[in-house]
C-alpha cells in the first residue's frame, strides 16, 4: 500500500480507501462484509469511508463491528451527514440540530469516540452555510472529529465553505466527488479550486460502478448478480453507462490494461490516482478477492502514452461538463 497526505493537511491516508456504500447492511451478508474489511486491512488499507445513510445506518454499524479490536490510532475512519436517517422533519440536512445528533449516532454505531473526517454529504440549500460550518467547527473543537470535508459540492460552494472554515479555525481538507475515466466533471473547476485551497479529493466510483471492469459486454445482458441487476439502487446508478457505445469503448481498453500488466479494474483505479489532487480512491467489494485485486492499483505509475491512448478511446463517451456536479445534489432538502 502507498500513502498520501489528505490535501495539504498533516493527515496521511492509504491511497486506496475502502468504502461500504451499496454493500454492507444491504447487498452483502454481514459475514461477507466483515471478510471484505479484513481483506482490506490485510492489504494495508487503513482508511475506511462510510455514511450514516448507507443501508439506513446499518452500514456504519457493520463497519464498526468489522473494525472492532483494531488499534484505533492506526485507522482513519470517515463518515458523512446530510441524507435522511429518520422520519422526522429534522432528521435530514445540515442544520445544527441534525449535525449534532447525527455525529453522536455515527460514533455509537462505529464504536469509536471520534472520526478522523466528518463530511457534509451534500450541500444543503435550506440551511445557512454559516450555521452548518459553526456546527462542524464545534464538533471538531469538541474532539468528535479531527477534520471536516464535503461531498459533491461545486467549486463555488467549496470556496465559500473554506473561507468560513478558515475564520472558524477548523480544517476543511477534503472533497469527495465521483471521479473516473468516464466521469471527469471535477477536472475543470473543482480540482483547480481545491489545489489552490489545499483540499484533497477522496474519489468514489473510480471504476464507474463496475463498468470499467469490462465485465459488461455490448449487446449482451448483464451478468447475473452484478450491480446492473441489483434492484436496491445499484442498477439505477450504473444505468447511465449501460449503452453499447460506452461498453464497446471500454472493451477497447483491454489491450492497454494487458500491456500495463493490469486488469481493467486495476487500470481504472490507477488512472484516478495519476491526478495529483486525488488523495485516495475509494473501492468497494462484495467479495474479499475483489479487494485483494483492486489494491494492486496502489503505487502504479501509468506512462503518458497509455494515458493519451485511454483519453482518445473514452473521450467521445466520457462526461466532462462541470455543471453535472449539480446532478448529484438535490435542489432542495430531502425529507
Model description:
Belongs to the shaker potassium channel beta subunit family. The N and C termini lie far apart (40 Å). Strand 7, helix 5 (155-168) and strand 8 (172-175) form a beta-alpha-beta unit. The longest helix is centred in the first third of the chain and has 15 residues, at 96-110. 36% of the residues lie in helices and 13% in strands. An 8-stranded parallel beta barrel has the order 3-4-5-6-7-8-9-10, surrounded by 5 helices. It has a two-stranded antiparallel ribbon with strand order 1-2. The chain is globular and about 50 Å long. The chain has 335 residues and is α/β, with parallel strands linked by helices.
State the gist of this model.
With 335 residues, the protein is of the alpha/beta class. Helix content is 36%, strand content 13%. The chain has a single domain, classed as NADP-dependent oxidoreductase domain (TIM Barrel), CATH 3.20.20.
Amino acid at each position: 500500500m502507498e500513502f498520501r497526505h489528505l490535501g495539504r493537511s498533516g493527515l496521511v491516508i492509504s491511497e486506496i480507501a475502502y468504502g461500504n456504500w451499496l454493500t454492507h447492511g444491504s447487498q452483502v451478508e454481514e459475514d461477507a462484509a466483515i471478510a471484505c474489511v479484513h481483506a482490506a486491512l490485510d492489504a494495508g488499507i487503513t482508511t475506511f469511508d462510510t455514511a450514516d445513510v448507507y443501508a439506513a445506518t446499518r452500514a456504519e454499524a457493520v463497519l464498526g463491528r468489522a473494525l472492532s479490536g483494531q488499534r484505533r490510532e492506526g485507522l482513519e475512519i470517515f463518515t458523512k451527514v446530510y441524507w435522511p436517517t429518520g422520519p422526522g422533519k429534522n432528521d435530514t440536512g445540515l442544520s445544527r440540530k441534525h449535525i449534532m445528533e447525527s455525529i453522536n449516532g455515527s460514533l455509537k454505531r462505529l464504536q469509536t469516540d471520534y472520526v478522523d473526517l466528518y463530511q457534509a454529504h451534500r450541500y444543503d440549500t435550506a440551511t445557512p452555510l454559516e450555521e452548518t460550518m459553526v456546527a462542524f467547527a464545534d464538533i471538531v473543537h469538541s474532539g468528535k472529529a479531527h477534520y471536516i470535508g464535503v461531498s459533491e459540492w461545486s467549486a463555488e460552494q467549496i470556496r465559500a465553505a473554506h473561507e468560513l472554515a478558515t475564520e472558524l479555525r477548523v480544517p476543511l481538507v477534503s472533497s469527495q466527488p465521483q471521479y473516473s475515466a468516464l466521469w471527469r466533471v471535477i477536472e475543470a473547476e473543482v480540482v483547480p479550486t481545491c489545489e489552490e485551497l489545499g483540499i484533497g479529493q477522496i474519489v468514489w466510483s473510480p471504476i464507474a460502478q463496475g463498468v470499467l471492469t469490462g465485465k459488461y459486454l455490448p449487446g449482451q445482458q448483464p451478468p447475473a448478480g452484478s450491480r446492473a441487476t441489483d434492484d436496491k439502487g445499484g442498477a439505477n446508478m450504473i444505468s447511465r453507462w449501460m449503452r453499447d457505445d460506452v461498453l464497446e469503448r471500454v472493451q477497447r481498453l483491454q489491450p492497454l490494461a494487458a500491456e500495463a500488466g493490469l486488469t481493467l479494474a486495476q487500470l481504472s483505479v490507477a488512472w484516478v490516482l495519476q491526478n495529483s489532487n486525488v488523495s485516495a480512491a475509494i473501492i468497494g467489494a462484495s467479495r474479499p478477492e475483489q479487494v485483494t485485486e483492486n489494491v494492486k492499483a496502489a503505487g502504479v505509475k501509468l506512462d503518458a502514452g497509455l494515458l493519451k491512448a485511454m483519453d482518445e478511446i473514452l473521450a467521445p463517451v466520457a462526461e466532462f461538463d462541470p455543471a453535472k456536479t449539480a446532478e448529484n445534489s438535490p435542489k432542495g432538502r430531502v425529507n
